[in-house]
Every structure is written in structure tokens, then in C-alpha cells.
Write a structure and sequence with these properties.
The chain is α/β, with parallel strands linked by helices. The protein folds into three domains: about 260 residues, Aldolase class I (TIM Barrel, Alpha-Beta Barrel); about 60 residues, no CATH class; about 110 residues, 2-Layer Sandwich (Double Stranded RNA Binding Domain). Helix content is about 40%, strand content about 20%. The protein binds 3-methyl-2-oxobutanoic acid and zinc ion. The site of zinc ion has 6 residues, from loops.
Length: about 525
């Protein structure tokens, strides 16, 4: 099997295309939405990581989605840039084609449901109508780009005979990649292996296309199913950083890539991912979305390489291979090093920013971040890379309408908590105070006093950026208003300040979201 692909040329038999859908399937999941600047930053990081395809969004879904796919297609070089489109949707394919056009290598990914359940209840269509749309939609996409992917939504629950007919129609109409999603995370590895083996054996033209696996994790089998698909002949895997995605998520990119790297005997495949960048990209996504990685998450979780038991520690000291199947360094873990102190100057700070991947900050942002760094260095003995990252991420967040200026809080076991807050709202200073049952409650009440709004708080979580009682707090606040959900993040050595920064960040995101759909809403 050696395929001549419009975007990749002649591919070796063992080459696996890494298709990242963090910005599409991942971004669809509650609490993971990103703004344009955040998506662009992630897309550049994914390109540096070495993924082959970036699915940048679903252009017809909203003007914002269209714009982000178009911007990524314009500015991100390296990977194929892909836009999603329904096969039978009215403007989907035209919008996707327009959005990906600036890319050096554009792809349209078009899909339609093929399972009896989805055709009957979701599409309300007869199988023959669906089959006709597969041909028409794929041809329409092929008229716009050479690289077309077609997906059978709910493919794993589709009648085998009908799946073969749909795949054959898509290939005849010009699809170059055929993706079989396990949309609801129902399949087992044996099911996956059987589906791909069947399609490769029975569908005419199957040897001229790339088969792709797209697995959801509802039963925790997404990565196992993806590995089984590879062994049965799939040569593209669709995955997301940290496994984010609809419901229980998608197959995690870092897990599938490291499974391939660590077990060449079982998974003898090649890809172009630079694994020492995995942790950096995982953390970037967690910081942008506020969606923390669980501590025991494979590869990128805080405990993934921690050895607690005495027996394990003893073995590790004698020979690391006793309990480590891959080195922490191979996926980007290094000892958090002491980086800068309170006597470090602006030049050293700027050098550090460049080394941490923030070379593109404007002068004002560097100056503001430097001022905060000096303030932090006065309060915290040791400053680490993670401290700088948290601080700069906080500085570059979207504060278009509401800015945090200062906060004073008085609280204790024998008094009502009181917060005095200063914000800047659309360029004007606003000062006021409020009481609360505790310091966070008082501070959030003060935000509501200065900037009245209807949004409700649905999640509040605090973690530490580094070890020690002087560590910066990293806070996530989730707000909900009329079914719209946004997450805000904040970081500061003072936990309550960090919480207010996160609240203000969430409010700004909500304002941007509302202004896209309903310009007059949520005014102060
Ligand atoms: O899970 C799914 O079926 C999808 C398709 C749109 C590819 O995400
Ligand atoms: Zn999906």
C-alpha cells in the first residue's frame, strides 16, 4: 500500500497522518471555547509540534468560526488546513472552500450520518437520499479543492453493506481520505479492526485513498480503538491535545503518538510529531481554555512520571527502566528551573519571554508583564518558568471592555468580608465595594456592583502554579448566560485577586460572544 496523495505526495506504507481537531471537535466541548487570537496561537503551536493536518473549525457554524479558519489558513504554514462542512448543508461546502482557500494546502472535510438511527431520526432521510448526497457533496468539495475528506458520521453503527456503498460513492466522487468516526464512543478495538479490514477488502478503489480513524472516548476506548484501526490499515488518526472533545472527548494526540513511539513492535508506524513539545502544547491549551488536565492523565498529567511508593523509587534509583517506559524528557518534562530574580532586568525578562514562546508580544504587553513580574518578585522568593507563563498568559488575555485595576479585601473568622474594588470599564475608572459571606463572595459581589450583569457563576476552581505557600494561584471561573458558557482564567500571588482577574476575563469573553450575536446585550 503506497498512496499518492494530493497534499502529501507519495506516502510510505508506514506513514501515519496526524490530524489534529483540537480547534474543531475539541473546541466544541463545553468550557473549551477559544477566541480568534487564542485559536491562532494554538494553531501555530500545533504547526511547530509537527501535526500534518489542522482541522481549524466549522466555517458555516458562525461568522467567528469562518473568520478563525480563514485566519489560520492565511497565517499558519506547514500543516494542511482543513474546514468542516456538512455533506447536505446549504452553504457548508462553499463556506468551507472560501475559508481554507488562503492555505498552501487546503482541505475540505465533509460528513453525513450513515447509521440507521441517525438517518431515520436526525436526518429524516432515506438511505438512497443520503447516498446521493455523498456523491453530490463530495463532488462539490472536489470542485473547490484537490484534498477532500469524507466522513460517515456514526460510521461504527452503520450497516456494513451500506457503509461500503457510501465509501465507494465518496471515492468515486473524488474523496482522497475516508474517515470512519466512532461518533458516540460505542465501538471496541475488535469492531474497529473489522470495519477497516472490511472496507479495504471490499470497496473498489480503497487502495487509492487514506483511511482515517476518529474515535470518541465515552467508554475510555478512544486510543485503543485508534491503535486497532491503525493495525487494520488506517493511516490517518484524528485526535486532540489533552483528549478534549465532545462529551468524554476524542482520542488524545499525545497518547496515540507516544504509543506509536514507545511500542514500535506493536505499532510499527512513523509520524512527524516532535514529542518533546507535547507538554508545552498541552499546557498552552490548558491555560487558554482553563480546562485542567487530570493529575493522572497519561503523558501530560502532573503525576504521569511521579514515583511515590518506596519500592518504585528504589527501582528508579537503580535503573529508571524498571518503572519508566519512556523518559519524561522525551515528552517535554524538565525540572522547573529557577529563572529570574528581583534584580533581573528588562532585557533578561524579554529573553526569557522569547525562550518561553512569547516572542511576538508588543512593547506595551512586555512592559505590563515586566511590571507584574517585578511585583511578583518582591512577594515571592523563587520565580520559575511556570510563574512567568501564568503571569504573561494573564496579561495577554482579552480585557477589551473591563480591566482589573486593584482590590482590597478584609475578612476573617469574626467579621463580614468586605471587598473594595477598582475596575476600568471601557476606559473609565469605576470604584466600589461590597460585602460577602467570605472574601471571594465579597469580591465577586463588588464586580457585580461595578458591572451589573445577569450571568451566573457555574464553576469556580483554584489551583497552584508551582509548589509552596507563596505559589501563584491559577483560577478558573465559568459563567453562564442564556445558555452561553464561557471560562475565564486568572493568575496572581493573591488568590482573591486571581479569582477576580478570572471573573473579569470571563465577563470580557461573554461580552465578545454576545456582541457577535446580539450587539446591544449585556451592557453595564
Ligand atoms: O464524531 C464525529 O462523527 C465527528 C464528525 C463530524 C467527523 O466529529
Ligand atoms: Zn467527533
Amino acid at each position: 500500500m503506497s498512496i499518492d496523495h494530493p497534499s502529501f505526495g507519495r506516502l510510505a506504507d508506514d506513514r501515519v497522518i496526524i490530524f489534529d481537531t483540537t480547534l474543531r471537535d475539541g473546541e466544541q466541548s463545553p468550557g473549551c471555547s477559544m477566541n480568534l487570537a487564542e485559536k491562532l496561537r494554538m494553531a501555530h503551536a500545533l504547526a511547530e509540534l509537527g501535526v500534518d493536518v489542522i482541522e481549524a473549525g466549522f466555517p458555516v457554524a458562525s461568522p467567528g468560526d469562518f473568520e478563525s479558519v480563514r485566519e489560520i489558513a492565511t497565517h499558519v504554514r506547514g500543516p494542511v488546513i482543513c474546514g468542516l462542512a456538512r455533506t447536505g448543508g446549504r452553504d457548508d461546502i462553499a463556506r468551507a472552500g472560501e475559508a481554507v482557500r488562503p492555505a498552501a494546502r487546503p482541505r475540505i472535510h465533509t460528513f453525513i450520518s450513515t447509521s440507521p438511527l441517525h438517518m431515520k431520526y436526525k436526518l429524516r432521510m432515506e438511505p438512497d437520499t443520503v447516498l446521493g448526497l455523498v456523491t453530490a457533496g463530495t463532488e462539490a468539495a472536489r470542485n473547490l479543492v484537490d484534498d477532500v475528506e469524507w466522513s460517515a458520521e456514526d460510521g461504527s453503527r452503520t450497516e456494513p453493506e451500506f457503509l461500503c456503498r457510501c465509501v465507494e460513492a465518496a471515492i468515486r466522487a473524488g474523496a482522497t481520505t475516508i474517515n470512519i468516526p466512532d461518533t458516540v464512543g460505542y465501538a471496541t478495538p475488535a469492531d474497529m479492526a473489522a470495519i477497516f479490514a472490511m472496507l479495504r477488502e471490499r470497496v473498489p478503489g480503497a487502495d487509492a485513498v487514506i483511511f482515517s480513524a476518529h474515535n470518541h472516548n465515552d467508554l475510555g476506548l478512544a486510543v485503543a480503538n485508534t491503535a486497532a484501526a491503525l493495525r487494520a490499515g488506517a493511516r490517518q488518526v484524528e485526535c486532540t491535545i489533552n483528549g478534549i472533545g465532545e462529551r468524554a472527548g476524542n482520542a488524545a494526540l499525545e497518547e496515540i503518538v507516544m504509543a506509536i513511539r514507545t511500542r514500535p513492535d506493536a505499532l510499527p508506524f512513523q509520524n512527524a510529531v516532535r514529542t518533546p513539545d507535547l507538554l508545552r502544547v498541552s499546557r498552552m491549551l490548558a491555560t487558554i481554555t482553563g480546562f485542567d488536565v487530570q493529575p493522572n492523565k497519561a503523558i501530560v498529567g502532573r503525576n504521569a512520571f511521579a514515583h511515590e511508593s518506596g519500592i518504585h523509587q528504589d527501582g528508579m534509583l537503580k535503573n529508571a527502566a524498571t518503572y519508566e517506559i519512556m523518559t519524561p524528557e522525551s515528552v517535554g518534562w524538565t525540572k522547573s528551573s529557577l529563572v529570574l530574580g528581583k534584580h533581573s532586568g528588562r532585557a533578561a525578562f524579554r529573553d526569557k519571554l522569547v525562550a518561553l514562546g512569547y516572542g511576538d508580544l508588543g512593547d506595551n504587553q512586555v512592559q505590563d508583564a515586566f511590571t507584574r513580574f517585578k511585583d511578583l518578585a518582591d512577594r515571592k522568593k523563587s520565580i520559575y518558568d511556570d510563574d512567568i507563563t501564568a503571569l504573561v498568559d494573564d496579561e495577554v488575555r482579552d480585557h477589551a471592555h473591563v480591566r482589573f485595576v486593584s482590590l482590597d479585601v478584609a475578612s476573617g473568622s469574626h467579621r463580614t468580608a468586605r471587598a473594595e474594588l477598582q475596575l476600568e470599564i471601557d476606559g473609565r475608572a469605576a470604584t466600589g465595594g461590597a460585602d460577602g459571606s467570605g472574601p471571594v463572595d465579597a469580591a465577586f459581589n463588588a464586580v457585580r456592583t461595578l458591572f451589573p450583569h445577569e450571568a451566573t457563576l457555574v464553576l469556580f476552581s483554584v489551583g497552584a502554579v508551582t509548589d509552596g505557600t507563596d505559589a501563584q494561584a491559577r483560577t478558573t471561573v465559568r459563567l453562564e448566560e442564556q445558555g452561553k458558557m464561557v471560562d475565564g482564567q486568572g493568575a496572581d500571588a493573591d488568590t482573591i485577586v486571581s479569582a477576580v482577574r478570572a471573573y473579569v476575563h470571563a465577563l470580557n469573553k461573554l461580552l465578545v460572544k454576545r456582541s457577535r450575536t446580539e450587539p446591544a446585550a449585556l451592557s453595564a
